[in-house]
Every structure is written in C-alpha cells, then in structure tokens.
Amino acid sequence: MAAAALRRQGFALRLARLEHQRWASQPALREDLKQGKVAAAAAASKPEVVYEGAMAGTLRRVKILSFTSFVFSSLGAPVLAFHTYPEVSVVAKSSIASMMMMLSALTTAGLHWYAGPYVRKLSWKPGSKEVAIETLDVLARRVERKIQLSDVHPPDTNKPLVTFFARGNHYYIEEDRFPSPELLKKLVPRR
C-alpha cells in the first residue's frame, strides 16, 4: 500500500514539474508565434506533397473491405459449418470451415501483394535528397517511409505494379500523372 502511495506521489511531482516547464516556456512561445518564427521554421523543415495517387482512396476502402471480409469469414465459417447439417461428419465440417477461412485469407494476402507497392502520397522538398513515401499495409493503415534518392534502383521483379525499388521495398507511381519531371527522373531510372 505504501509503495503505491509513493508511486502516486512521484507521478504527481513529475506532473507538477512538467506543468511548470510548460508554463515557463509559454510566454516565449507566444512571442515567437506573434513574430511568425515558429510557423516559418515548421514550413521550412516540412517537405511538400508532390504526388498523390489517383486510386489512393479507393485502394484504402478496398483493403478495408477485404480485411473486414476476412475477419467475418474467419469468425463465421466455423459457426456456419458446425451449426448446420447435423448429419455431416465433424471432419467434413472442419475442412469446409478451414477452406472458407483460407480462401478469404488468400484473397486478402493477394490483394496486398498486388497493390502493396502503390504510393498514396510522396513528399519531397525540392533540392533535397530524401523522399517521404506513404503506402498502406495489409490492414489499410498508412505506412510512411523515408528513402534517400541514392537508394533508388530499377525493380528486379515480375510484380505487375512496380516502378522502382528502394531499401528492400517495391513502389509504384503513375508516371503519366507525376507532376515533377525532375524527381521522376531520379525515381524511375530507365531500365
């Protein structure tokens, strides 16, 4: 009991110090905000979005639908198999349920394999040697990776949607919709 009270007291002290630091730094922050220093520094350091994939929203919705159908089929397959047709053997019901779940998992994995390299957003500060690339994972969550332009190589795969390869990952951009010819030359080295 005494240990819990000491932990609460230590937490309260750390919180009080944090509040004091926050209040002590606020006047300086307000002054910087009035002069525009903070906004200018943030704008100077943040790269601008150069490219947005045309199918980014649609792809995200399709991946969400695919994963949701996988979850529901994984939950529903055993229920359907075991609560219908009492005359069928348990082995047959188990095999039907596992086939349904496997088919659903394979379609979700296939969609991710096919559309995984699709670049949703690409951010770049002109003149910089670093690019921030946003793609989706299998659960349709955004994944941002930063790569150096020197790490970009032509792809060496038979995957259908791949434009370039960098740091162990494949990426696909729509070359005809890419707005920056200078960056496109660096990202898509001619094969």
What does this structure look like?
With 191 residues, the chain is of the alpha+beta class. The protein folds into two domains: 48-53 and 117-187, no CATH class; 56-115. 54% of the residues lie in helices and 16% in strands. It is built from five helices and seven strands. The chain has helices at residues 2-35, 37-45, 56-82, 90-115, 181-187; strands spanning 48-52, 121-124, 130-136, 142-148, 152-153, 164-166, 169-171. It has a four-stranded antiparallel sheet, with no helix packed on it. It has a three-stranded antiparallel sheet with strand order 5-6-7, with no helix packed on it. The termini are far apart. 12% of the residues are buried.
In short:
By secondary structure, the protein is α+β, with helices and mostly antiparallel strands. The protein contains five helices and seven strands, in the order ααβααββββββα. It has helices spanning 2-35, 37-45, 56-82, 90-115, 181-187, and strands spanning 48-52, 121-124, 130-136, 142-148, 152-153, 164-166, 169-171.
Keywords:
single chain, alpha+beta, 2 domains, 4-stranded antiparallel β-sheet, 3-stranded antiparallel β-sheet, 7 strands
| Straight-line distance between termini | 69 Å
In terms of quaternary structure, the protein is single chain
Count of helical stretches: 5
Largest sheet, spatial ordering of strands? 1-2-3-4
> Could you spell the SSE succession in H and E letters?
HHEHHEEEEEEH
How many individual domains?
Answer: 2
The coarse overall form would be: elongated
Low-confidence stretches: none
Q: Would you tell me the structural class of the helices and strands?
A: alpha+beta
